[in-house]
Amino acid sequence: MSAPDNILRPVRKNTGKLRLVHHKNTAESETVKMPAPSKVVIPMLQHIGRPCSPIVKPGDRVAVGTKIGDSSEPNSVPVHSSVSGTVSKITTIRHSNGNTCEAVVIESDGLMTEDIFLSPVKVETAEDLVNAARESGLVGLGGAGFPTHSKLDIPKGKAVDTLIINGAECEPYITSDYRECMEHPEDILQGTNLVKSVLNIKRAIIAIEDNKPKAIKYLKQVSYELHLDKEIEIMKLDSRYPQGAEKVLIYSVTGRKLPINQLPSDIGCLVMNISTVSNLYRYIKTGMPLVSRRITVEGDCINKPMNVEVPIGALIRDVAEFCGGYKSEPGKILMGGPMMGVAQISDEAPVIKQNNAILILSIEAGTLPPATPCIRCGRCVEICPVYLMPVAIETAMRNPDREKLLSLGANYCIECGCCAYVCPARRPLVQVMRQAKERSIKS
Ligand code: SF4
Ligand code: SF4
């Protein structure tokens, strides 16, 4: 069943309504590189699409950047080792999003020796770019996990005229993309220009919320110095949540409305996260695939909140240890920010490619007062940026029926968390929306 007409509308005209308190406490925290932990656990599923299969076995020696998993499925991307050492086992783990998948466990030798077969990549055509993006193992680093090569592979017959680089970073606490702007502006700008020129896209815009004036100013200055100021626009956006959500961003930047069931390329847009485009450029320059990423480690329960470059597959507890350890027993650990983050059942989960933050909260800060009955105030409906009725979907989930959930458009939820944030009854609406979405898509 398709969604009814009343939700077949583009994103709300107000482009997101929440003004959040941002708590960007780590904004000036320069990224610190975490040394190799004693072991990493690297999941074979770190993207939207089918999981990879391991191509190594226990006892194999690997180096940093060695490919350890791959798949022939179109929406899968290869997985690489983030340390040098020895594969100790292939096992099944619980993923940070709650699903189970295969993972390769590697005991590190502490040397971080790089794979000798890595070398810079030549990119001249669109096909070269798509192949490079796939081999880099890149997915959307803003959290979505959509394979970068699939985004860049613009379907025949579709004309993309606008490249939007998403630097909104609208979630509270997270400063990972902001640090990318401050530490690697050349890579962002050169990567953007490369994608623009190779894919022959007319206009390129780097869009950043206006609560990051230093990043905006710095990118403008570096773009002038690199003579890219005529090629790339730097656009200031209103700091309103969820400004970084794809539909909201496209509307804010271009005024174009992305109808439900359509892709950005259907309305002439290509949207990439700012750290993704930067990492893609570094891969082309060096041949080193995505083996580490910057994570904002924050929360009232961690001793030293900071931005850390973490090897993919490092366990949360090892990252926390590197950040000075816990102040007390954590009450809640979120992979991601407070609006869209996923609560973890323990600190044994590994960091994956799309994690941009770990939020470690004390029992007091992480425990919400109990939910009370819905008072039918309609605030959740009023705030939803994609015109859903969270209260109705929550009611439908008491007796879940796929047709009913589809008719309410549960599959179109962008999991932004706005409904739960405004609910005076503290209903756990995001968790219910996630379950409803999964049920409406899968069952
Ligand atoms: S999380 Fe809530 S507010 Fe956000 S899209 Fe889903 S239903 Fe709408
Ligand atoms: S915001 Fe909360 S209390 Fe108000 S209608 Fe929605 S679920 Fe009910």
Short note summarizing the structure:
The protein has 443 residues and is an alpha/beta fold.
Helix content: 25-40%
CATH top-level class of the largest domain: Alpha Beta
What portion of the residues fall into strands of 2 or more residues? Answer: 15-25%
Unreliable stretches? 1-15
| Lateral strand order in the biggest sheet | 1-14-13-17-15-16
> Strand count, sense and closure of the main sheet?
6 strands, mixed
Can you count the helices? 14
CATH fold annotation of the largest domain? Ubiquitin-like (UB roll)
Average per-residue pLDDT, rounded, comes to 92
How many structural domains in the coordinates?
A: 3
What's the shape?
globular
CATH architecture term of the largest domain: Roll
Could you tell me the number of beta strands? 17
Q: What hetero molecules are in the model?
A: iron/sulfur cluster
